[in-house]
Amino acid sequence: MSNNGQRAAVAGSAAGRVPGRRTFAIISHPDAGKTTLTEKFLLYSGAIKTAGAVKSRKQERVRSDWMELERQRGISITSAVLGLDYRGRRLNLLDTPGHADFSEDTYRTLYAVDSALMVLDAARGIESRTLKLFEVCREQSIPIITFVNKLDRPALEPLELLDQIESSLGLKPVPVTWPVGDAGDFRGVVDRRDGTLVRYNRTAHGAAVGSEETVPLSEVGEAEELLEELALLEAVGSGAGEDFDRESFLAGDLTPVFFGSALANFGVRLLLDSFVELAPAPVPRRDAAGRIRDLDEPFSGFVFKVQANMDPKHRDRIAFVRVCSGRFERGMRLVCERTGRVVATRHAQQLFADDRETVEEAYPGDVVGLVNTQGLNVGDTLFAEGATASPFPRIPDFVPEHFALARNGDSGKHKQFWKGLGQLSEEGVVTVLRRPEDGGQEPILGAVGPLQFQVAEHRMEHEFGAPLRLRSAPWTEALRLTSEKEALRLSEVRGTRIVRDGRGRPLALFEDRYWLRQALEKLGKEGG
Ligand code: GDP
Question: Where's it found, cell-wise (predicted)?
Fold first, then answer.
């Protein structure tokens, strides 16, 4: 690949390498077009020659027998982070699994990015999953750039979409481009920054880079109507120029909005060009004590995802580390802050487009995959040996959304059963919840995505030799309780079951949203 030369280049200071890096994730509801857009990024960056590959791989993925599941895990590993070079910038796109493989990893990944690209389906606007992912971004004030996709089809009115962004997310939308043409007859976008119209010509299913033609607005037939629309935008306070306040954007209060169609390659180049300009480069991160760790300080990073390969022939376990400061060099000795143990980095890997290859060095904003690091868990901070060891903030545990009752399928494998569950729970595959009254027999498993149960079953059997028997559980909602007092208050309430997670913290489970709302009311909390 063409970036070999760059990677072999002499080491510079970490801070010197950072300005060209953009580490981000795409947040969207399933089917909004994340995969298609990712593929178009590969196309426009020259990493692939024709589009269509991601799509077909995904169709294969839908078949779900065991072989497929294993393969799928293989695919998720190779796509945990995509490295792309575009116009002199290094883009690190972190994967946020979205369909059946949606899991806690999807949320955790958002702790390792510097910005997010929010993709909306123009006909659907803000959807439930978008909202949840957005909330995780908001918590950390991650800057968000919005792409309204599928403009080639009938869509909601652009103003209605802006209104949804503002009212559902509390984010001020600033349209940088504006769609031209009627619903279903999309002809291009006006770039409001310089008043030009970018006209698009359809290529065969958007397989190749789209051909675009840029013309001044004054030369456009339908200019008058357009100008009126644009004037209206200014009037409602959505000006592209003076209203675009970079500070508010970086604080996560304002989002620049782009329109287009990933499938038809409409507006993709404009999005990408603007994205590399707008999205922030990695900035120094604060540790848990609030101290800023400069980019040039010795190596530090944290594990945001751990993935165990289910293929018994390659039982490697990869810990994905986001580099926060300093220079990573393959073979260097790192120390895990939590355990004090030295971590070998001889088998570090980085991922470029589709290839998994050995990484020699990495800088803040990059992601390094450390292979066969049994002792590393999500949230662990790593330091260069000898450097100060102050951890980065904890990645929070997310509340499970799916539940199942778990039994040991082989009474002779008691030890393996609990060891396996302990390991899966540490990795965050499933959360193991205990009821005081279960006599230590039938724990409840909680997961953020339902596929995690299949992963747990498979790994328990093949990796720990303890078959897991799952049966359905009645709960559909969970609430993390903040104190024992809250647990006590809810313990006698109908429709509520109090359980404890691996660290003994209480959660309340409900069979219905109704009971959750009742509980929130009883605790004097809003929402539900
Ligand atoms: P993901 O679930 O967000 O990754 O969505 P995909 O990229 O897999 O897209 C879901 C479906 O929407 C697929 O059938 C795509 O071909 C289709 N799609 C994606 N982008 C566009 C677009 O711009 N226009 C139209 N008409 N369809 C699109």
Answer: Cytoplasm
